[in-house]
Design brief:
CATH class of the largest domain: Mainly Alpha
Radius of gyration: 26 Å
Number of helices: 14
Largest sheet: none
CATH architecture of the largest domain: Orthogonal Bundle
Shape: globular
Order of helices and strands: HHHHHHHHHHHHHH
CATH superfamily of the largest domain: MetI-like
CATH topology of the largest domain: MetI-like fold
């Protein structure tokens, strides 16, 4: 390429870049606007409990109050039904822990059976799993309510725990993982060496499934932790409620969100409501941070067929 040709190419590139500059600028403006639209509410939620109700109304929205504000907001929340909030929080923690363990176990075993074994009716079971995954969970509330009532589990912890172990999305995700990520030659080689289906699972499939386990645990935790409708239907006693349902009761009893209740002797206002929202959000964030490496590993492994 001669010097003249090189200059022409450079001039052409500059013209192209000049034409593309407005589009790039617009794209950046749109991305920044959407980022701010998403980040500002989360930032406000973190900062709001640090202020008093007056400060929440008069101070700049993104300003910080005091650390004492968090303590005061928590103490005010504890005044509602003599600290019932702690009971709801503990209920949610141990309900969700059991649900995640059982749901992950069933999902991994079910996905492995559909992907790597010669069990009968595999296609029928896979289709059933897909249908159960596609149908909205709200559609199952009435039959679950009838079943729970028939079994005598209404208004018990098991009325919340058992339905939460139903995780068809996890079964399908495990099926895709075991079908595409782990070569079937490994399964066959293990069988030639004398391993049965359980031996192949514990020797080959399970050790290579850390990323999958992280994904299943996170998604199961997220779904069960914020589940509101089914626990609201199958539980009535305050001692058995989960945190989302309990906070719904708290919010409905607060003039800040429900003016129809009239005057309220309890100091549950904007800062306390924001702190209650943080109680829902923080555990999901902590689980995400704890399992982020496994999540990334599982997503990358499941996106490439061996």
């Amino acid at each position: 390429m001669t010097l003249t040709e090189a200059k022409k190419v450079t001039v052409r590139k500059k013209k192209i870049n000049a034409k593309a500059l407005p589009a790039k600028t617009l794209a950046w403006v749109v991305m920044v606007a959407f980022a701010l639209f998403s980040v500002i509410p989360m930032t406000w939620l973190v900062l709001a409990p640090s202020k008093t109700q007056v400060g929440l109304q008069e101070d700049p929205p993104m300003s910080f109050g005091t650390f004492q504000g968090y303590i005061d907001a928590w103490n005010n929340l504890m005044l509602f039904q003599d600290g019932r909030l702690v009971t709801w929080l503990w209920n949610s923690i141990w309900y969700t822990s059991i649900q995640v363990l059982v749901a992950c176990l069933i999902a991994i075993l079910g996905g492995y059976a559909l992907a790597a074994t010669r069990m009968p009716f595999r296609k029928s079971m896979l289709i059933t799993t897909l249908v159960a995954m596609i149908v909205p969970q709200v559609a199952f509330v009435l039959p679950l309510f009838v079943e729970i009532t028939t079994l005598g589990l209404y208004d018990t912890a098991w009325a919340i725990i058992l339905p939460g172990t139903f995780f068809p999305f996890g079964v399908f995700l495990s099926y895709i993982y075991f079908s595409t990520t782990i070569p079937h030659d490994l399964y066959e080689a293990a069988r030639i060496d004398g391993s049965g289906d359980w031996g192949v699972f514990f020797r080959i499939a399970l050790p290579l499934s850390k990323g999958l386990i992280g994904m299943l645990a996170f998604f199961s935790f997220q779904v069960n932790w914020i589940n509101f409708f089914l626990p609201y239907v199958v539980v009535n006693s305050g001692e058995v409620l989960t945190l989302p349902v309990g906070l719904g009761i708290l919010f409905s009893s607060t003039p800040a969100l429900n003016p129809q209740v009239g005057a309220n002797v309890l100091p549950i206002r904007g800062p306390e409501i924001a702190l209650a929202g943080l109680l829902i959000a923080i555990p999901i964030l902590l689980i995400f941070l704890a399992s982020s490496r496994l999540l990334v590993r599982g997503v990358l492994a499941g996106s490439v067929k061996s």
